[in-house]
Design brief:
By secondary structure, this protein is of the alpha+beta class. The chain has seven helices and four strands. Strands 2-1-3-4 form a four-stranded mixed beta sheet. Helix 1 packs across helix 3 and helix 2 packs across helix 5.
């Protein structure tokens, strides 16, 4: 989400069943809306339940970035725990072929992507959600909107120094 060559990249490791991830989501979206030099990369890190894994697999199986963002937004805005009924209802609401998504989600490439994300998180010392990597620094835990703004400004400043 955001320009590929953004000055600041925020990578979020998240779980669709993480209440703190859901709490941070609106602030994260606001930061992207307010800053045209910020991009967000979402990393599915389903560690809380089998339903989290299914939700992540379905997300990765979506063929359109817009469908992904709509699906992601709906799940992150849901107050309830993610379960199969919610996932199927959400996929139908965003207008995708449910069976096609389920079929793509079962592909080994999807599980390999999740495995690579888990390995990356392990290599970075990330063992919970949410966790953020902002340019070159790791910030575990839920961050307030104000804190996100501060960290984006700091990252922007560090980047400016290295490019001069």
């Amino acid at each position: 989400l955001g320009p590929k060559k953004a000055l600041v990249t925020i990578v979020e490791f998240f779980d669709y069943n993480c209440g703190y991830c859901k709490q941070v989501f609106p602030s994260l979206m606001k930061i992207v809306e307010e800053n045209e030099d910020v991009r967000v990369v979402f990393k599915e890190f389903p560690i809380l339940s089998d339903n989290s894994h299914t939700a992540a697999s379905y997300a990765l199986a979506l063929e359109s970035q817009l469908k992904f963002l709509t699906y992601h937004s709906k799940l992150m805005s849901s107050r309830s725990s993610v379960n199969q009924a919610l996932l199927e209802r959400t996929l139908k609401e965003i207008g995708v072929d449910l069976e096609a998504v389920k079929s793509r989600a079962a592909d080994t490439a999807i599980s390999q992507t999740i495995d690579r994300t888990k390995a990356l998180a392990g290599a970075l010392g990330i063992n919970g959600t949410p966790a953020f990597v902002i340019n070159d620094k790791i910030y575990p835990g839920a961050l307030s909107e104000d804190r996100l703004r501060e960290l984006v400004a700091e990252a922007r400043g560090r980047k400016a120094k290295t490019t001069n």
